[in-house]
Amino acid sequence: MSTVKERYLANIVTEDVQEKMIFMGGPRQVGKTTLAWMVANKFTCPVYLNWDARQHRTRILEEQWSPDTDFLVLDEVHKYRHWKSHVKGIWDTREEGLKLIVTGSSKLNMYRRSSDSLMGRYYYVRLHPFSMAEINGYFPDTEDNRAEEEPLQLVFRSPLHNMESLLTFGGFPEPFLKGSKRTLKRWQNQRFERIFREDIRDTENIRFLSQVELLGQLLPERVASPISIKSLSEDIEAGPKTVKNWLDLLERNYFIFRVPPYHKRLERALKKESKYYLWDWSEVGKENARFENLLAGHLLKYCHLRQDAFGDDIGLHYVRDKSKREVDFLITWNSEPWLLAEAATNQRHSLTNLSYFARKLNVSQAYLVTLEDRRDYIDKRTGIRVIPANTFLTAFV
To answer: Which DSSP helix (H) or strand (E) runs through 300?
Structure first.
């Protein structure tokens, strides 16, 4: 799969950087620097500066780059305490024509507030790992000609590559492109250490880092189930409020992402327990949970693209009621239920809950997405489409 080079956000970032700064967030080692350089190399005199490199810090602080610079990439600059005001100064006093991308592996959008001094000066985009659509060469169109309130119509394409490697090695570029389990294990260990012992240490005031690491080690076992804060607090010997704060911390640093329950106008719905998934689903041991995590990552990638690039009101949830009926994923569009999807390793999975919530929420698009790559059909009794993940995921991004 070494032919995969172009990233799905390249054209969107190339267009948007003509108007404003680009703030690019995403997990460590997902390819933010590579994408920034893909865009920067289209210009005459690009400059890349990384806050983690000591020799680059002085250049950033003193703005030491050639006046001919027409494209500037500032990487990990959010680790500087006064980074916002400094970036604002660079932008407001820049030479005419200078384009600017700011990248970071901690959530740059956590600083977006009504009082944000950078408000109106940047577009925020989130870069995700490789997905089925991306490895098959299906990229999002920068044009959107549909009516404003209409959701997009899904278009399923023929997969040129299957998802076996994606499920095994995850979607992060290095292990996926190498396709080696030895490389994967070493990469996972290095990434874990850098997230917990560099990124979190550099940007957060954490006294009990070993307990946060323990939390990170426990989470792959809890994927695909609503998280019990009480259970986690007992396992790592920390208060529930502290555990909740640490989960938020791991979310800010792109180790996990949260899928909340859907509860609008759904009686007897549970409103408290969210599900958490890993950005690197290859760390999840059980195949069924890893497959659900992969599906969650793909759907979140689609939602983030629609939010960041097109401003759509779209969100990812799961559905569960007090009778313990549950469907893995619900996508809302303009706050209304739009699509239901259930992950299943084979086609013998029950359609009962999907059928129930499709009727309850008035959702016409309901899918049983199977890891088993066999038949693609519509169940005549329920109207639910049973579809292989290879095909289903080509409709997203």
So the answer is: helix 287-310
Q: Can you list the positions of beta strands (E) in the chain?
A: 21-25, 46-50, 71-75, 99-104, 122-126, 256-259, 275-278, 314-320, 326-333, 336-344, 365-370, 377-378, 385-388
pLDDT at 3 over 60: no
Q: Does domain 10-127 have CATH number 3.10.290.10?
A: no
Spatial CB neighbours of 107, under 8 Å, sequence gap ≥ 6: 25, 251, 252, 253, 254
Handedness of CA 136, 305, 200, 82 (dihedral sign): positive
Phi, psi (degrees; rounded to nearest 5) at 336? -110, 140
Q: What Rg, from alpha-carbon coordinates, does the chain have?
A: 22
Percent of the chain with pLDDT over 90: 79
pTM as predicted: 0.94
The domain limits of the chain are: 10-127, 133-395
* pLDDT for residue 2 is more than 90: no
